[in-house]
From TrEMBL, chain A:
Residues 1-51, 516-556 are annotated as: Disordered. The keyword Plastid does not apply. Its cofactor is Zn(2+). One of its GO terms (biological process) is ubiquitin-dependent protein catabolic process. This is RBR-type E3 ubiquitin transferase.
UniProtKB/TrEMBL annotation, chain B:
Its EC number is 2.3.2.23. Residues 3-153 form the UBC core domain. It comes from Lactuca sativa. Keywords: ATP-binding, Nucleotide-binding, Peroxisome biogenesis, Transferase, Ubl conjugation pathway. This is E2 ubiquitin-conjugating enzyme. It is an enzyme of class 2 (transferase). The active site is at 90 (glycyl thioester intermediate). GO terms for molecular function: ATP binding; ubiquitin conjugating enzyme activity.
Amino acid sequence: MDSEDDMHDANDVDSYEEDYYSGDAMYSDDDDDAGYEFLDNASDDSDDVSVSRQQKNYTILKEDDIRQRQEDDITRISSVLSISRDSACMLLRRFNWNVSNVHEAWFANEDAVRKAVGMLDTTNIKPPKAGELPCGICFESYTLDSVSTAACGHPFCNTCWAAYISTSINDGPGCLTLRCPIPSCGAAVGVDMVNMLTSDEDKKKYRRYLLRSYIEDNRKTKWCPAPGCDCAIEFDLGSGSYDVTCYCSYSFCWNCTEEAHRPVDCETVSKWIMKNSAESENMNWILANSKPCPKCKRPIEKNQGCMHMTCNPPCKYEFCWLCLGQWSDHGERTGGFYACNRYESAKQEGAYDESERRREMAKNSLERYTHYYERWATNQSSRQKALADLLQMQTVHLAKLSERQCQPETQLKFILEAWLQIVECRRVLKWTYAYGYYLPEQEVAKRQFFEYLQGEAEAGLERLHQCAEKELHTHIDGNASQEEFNNFRTKLAGLTTVTRNYFENLVRALENGLSDVDSHGASSKTSTSKHAAGTSKSKSGKGKGPTKGGGSTRTDDLTGWSCDQCTYMNPKNATSCQICHTSR
Amino acid sequence: MQASRARLFKEYKEVQREKVADPDIQLVCDDSNIFKWTALIKGPSETPYEGGVFQLAFSVPEQYPLQPPQVRFLTKIFHPNVHFKTGEICLDILKNAWSPAWTLQSVCRAIIALMAHPEPDSPLNCDSGNLLRSGDVRGFQSMAKMYTRLAAMPKKG
């Protein structure tokens, strides 16, 4: 019985993976990278899926890996150039830890390199004679054993050395290029002296700076920006997508170190983030919704009431909201207290037009921005919620479901994948709003197409979310049968695939700047645009993305079937796709 | 605390011994506080400061010599790297290029060197810096000389 069960499991998992990853050659090659430890099997398993789905053009380095690499580089340089490890370390740091640059510079002009780094030629320096030596800092005399020197031979007592090095370490990473205290000397003070002379705490800080320098000064490595994460990412420069995912499961753009933001490019992201934080939006709001008090110039928002304004104390200036003139000038002859003829006539003459128009424009642009920002932020928070749900699923629900359905947790992986997909989709969807904000207004066809794609994406995601959240709970809490659960499995796995395909195509289309649209550009009539969008989308889908199990998975479920070509969810009874007319 | 006091005391004794050695610098320790010093320095020759005597005030921190002393001109001076009102000095060795091997005496020497070789590209006194940067050496020199006469020379009669 047991073995039969196992057999079944194995088959099931296999076929299931095949469905998902057929055509995705990258899937199996990097599960067992050296040094890859699972902290928590369940969670890492699922992260692994999202990592391995991409081509791996980067390496994640843990602190130990970094130290190991640094040590290896130092060893290499010190043995090739026959210099001490201490000098090799200073040399590497000077050349941003680029081994080949060190070689190049060294063999081109050894003297210049030595001088720049502070590696003195020690042959001419006499060792200090026996007897007492004066310390160059505290000016006291010491016996030889309590005095130390760098390569230059300038003597300082060990206490002053410790204080000197410690001061420099506490000043920051500049301590890595510390020199002999004698201003004209320039002999380097390296890690050996630090280890010999300073406290454990200072040594630790120095080691930390050295480690940081290895990552931060190197052109090919960057720290993972997630709070509390100690990993670094080494990236193969010039190799496609910048999106990387750390072991801590944080995804970010290696180029700009903002969170992962495909399909939007780094420039747009930085503009958008700047905009979100910028005072300029506040200014726009103030401009659109307030007028400055004519006397004290403080901005005043009129939220209700009549045109008779009284500024706050101490100003207390009374004025007319419409013409900004003094209120005491107003009366029956200017059209009563509740209207202002001066304003009306001036408006007719055009005197108020410009400032009014500016206010109007600012108000419109603010509303437009708010529209996109709200949706961007909502998807952001939905994503956070989905991440929390995913965690909840991993830690609580999965075990419960496993008990109830008598299925091992490995077989329930499809639920986690669904949730991971939801998280990823929320991320993409979020950035499509930044994309939409910067899509030029005048490109009507593109805008319509974009909005259509976005709408479909949202609807698809909602379906998946609904299924993964509501329907799942009937299986966790309710008494659904085994068969119903199997149906649910098919449905959820299918929805996950369909949604993944859709979003991947969406990302690709947006990254191409919706280049397909131009050929359809003319068809901007609303009645036909839906259709045009449909075919165009299916084209982009087919042109670039029949790879990921596109043909093999067709989802049938209780409500309908999803089109292979455009992923549209058709009603069950439709024989051809209602969007792109591909027959079923 | 103790280290800085001991070191300053060494410098004090050194100054007493070498009083004659450098006639351009006269360093004096405050009678009641070893962390406060004043110095009289002679304007270097062949500069508009020649003939003037300038007073400097030193305020030495407790972390001395690991941290640099604070120095400012008490005598008014027209120089690109000295603040005209406060006498603050913009000199790298008094900021990030400080080394504990410097002494108060060597700081004075560095300031004299700065008087002879102004750095108009990082000015604290913009008017003075602009004169030099625009190439108006004569204008700069006459201004500097005038202030030397007004502030750094004994009043006659």
